[in-house]
Automatic annotation (TrEMBL):
CDD domains: SIS_PHI (cd05005). SUPFAM superfamilies: SIS domain (SSF53697). It comes from the Bacteria. GO terms for molecular function: carbohydrate derivative binding; isomerase activity. This is SIS domain-containing protein. InterPro entries: PHI/rmpB, SIS_dom, SIS_dom_sf. Belongs to the SIS family. PHI subfamily. One of its GO terms (biological process) is carbohydrate derivative metabolic process. Residues 25-170 form the SIS domain. It comes from Sulfurovum lithotrophicum.
Amino acid sequence: MVAKRLIQQLKYGLKNADENNFNEFIEFFLQNKRIFVTGEGRSGLVGKFFAMRLMHLGNDVFVLGEINTPSIQKGDILVCISASGTTSSVVNSATTAKKHGATILAITANPKGLLKNLADFTVMIDTRNKKKRKKQNINDRKPPLGTLFELSSLLYLETLISEIMYICKIDEETMRARHVNI
């Protein structure tokens, strides 16, 4: 079944995200600091999902590129999502944020990317195919482009939100009260 194959591939992508790493990552979001989120393309959409959930939890959160995003300052957090770890807009944002004293959190699949080098903390979601192929066989049952990274990142971040809800004793009713109502 196709769904089972996808789930197996997602498990592979999340296998490096161990429990200690996950708990350390959560700590950044319990500090009640302003949080900024960036990513391009579909990774950017995952970032927006995450930003919305953080807002539902009561965090002061901003998505880079939106017109209401304030300047980043010392002590703020910037979450950068990039499978390649080399996306120029994401790397440039991380570089600038670091100059202003922000903490950089990276979610990437590339341990050698510029983003990992800039980050104060990195979550590795390794969905890259280790076998180098010149051309993907049409019969390969692998989702297109960055699908595995994006879905794995989304699953990881949604799990993080659930854990923060539990730690902070925030129920769905409290979150629903912060949900858009107009």
